[in-house]
Structure to design on (316 residues):
């Protein structure tokens, strides 16, 4: 099966995919995260109205920790059919060191759909405005899967006002030179329209198998099945004509990828496009790497701290 740089999977690939993934274990020393709990009195939640070039969007968000003048903050962006709750364990675990903001992208979680649809460039412009309204200092944007694309574009937008410190993409940038397979994506989108709950169950069973992740798999499935099927189908097609190399070439701040080892990351292809790039592999994850920040939260935070430290060093 032909895969794009941010991974998409077709119904035809379930059999082969299951053979590779369903028998995988979480690995020695891995502590699987309990499903994130929405109600936490320490978390500051809210919604903000963002306008840019005549567009508008309401973004739901949570904040973790306290912003410090001049210090970098972290903006966490979730993946396809997910929501800001997927980043809660990470943001909570780092809040003593880093002010963090998790946000629901338009159409996901508690954020209503925006007029621009699922355009990562339009989203990024609004997210950059949102970030500057929350903290008038440097930002590291962390994005998982689809959120990785939006993270890169948001950093690109933040560069224009001097607010970008770096980007960390998770389960992303395996090979930026590969194109999306439009036929595969459209077949999967059509299958979602016919049986969204069933296709989401197959997706999660393959990539976050219950036999190795326990209750986490059930929680992930419930969150993904709560997504509007129209939004889910749009999300598959939104990147078909997206020019990723153009974005990567424009980024002047460090970019780090955190991936699983099942698929090799083409570091050379990334470095040909990105001025300052490196990839860290979370060795404890034997499977696909989807939601690896939840499958091994402790190991993931070690690598994220390493990436953040390198970005701080590069800025000095």
């Amino acid at each position: 099966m032909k895969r794009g740089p941010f991974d998409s999977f077709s119904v035809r690939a379930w059999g082969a995919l299951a053979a590779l993934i369903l028998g995988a274990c979480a690995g020695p020393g891995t502590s699987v995260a309990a499903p994130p709990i929405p109600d936490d009195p320490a978390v500051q939640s809210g919604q903000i109205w963002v306008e840019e070039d005549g567009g508008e969007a309401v973004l739901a968000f949570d904040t973790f920790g306290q912003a410090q003048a001049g210090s970098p903050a972290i903006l966490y962006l979730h993946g396809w059919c997910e929501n800001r709750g997927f980043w809660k364990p990470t943001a909570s675990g780092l809040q003593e060191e880093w002010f963090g903001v998790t946000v629901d992208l338009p159409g996901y979680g508690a954020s209503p759909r925006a007029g621009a649809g699922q355009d990562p460039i339009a989203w990024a412009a609004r997210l950059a405005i949102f970030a500057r309204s929350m903290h008038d200092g440097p930002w590291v944007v962390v994005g998982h899967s689809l959120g990785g694309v939006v993270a890169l574009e948001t950093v690109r937008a933040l560069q224009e006002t001097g607010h970008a410190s770096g980007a960390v993409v998770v389960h992303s940038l395996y090979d930026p030179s590969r194109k999306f397979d439009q036929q595969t994506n459209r077949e999967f989108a059509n299958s979602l329209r016919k049986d969204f709950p069933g296709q989401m169950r197959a997706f999660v069973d393959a990539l976050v198998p219950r036999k190795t992740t326990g209750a986490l798999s059930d929680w992930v499935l419930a969150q993904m099945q709560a997504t509007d099927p129209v939004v889910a189908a749009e999300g598959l097609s939104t990147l078909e004509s997206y020019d990723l190399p153009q974005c990567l070439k424009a980024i002047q701040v460090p970019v780090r990828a955190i991936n699983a080892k099942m698929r090799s990351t083409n570091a050379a292809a990334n470095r040909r496009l990105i001025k300052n790039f490196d990839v860290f592999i979370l060795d404890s994850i034997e499977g696909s790497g989807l939601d690896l920040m939840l499958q091994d939260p402790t190991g993931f935070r070690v690598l994220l701290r390493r990436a953040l430290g390198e970005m701080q060093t590069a800025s000095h």
Summary: The chain is about 40% helix and 15% strand.
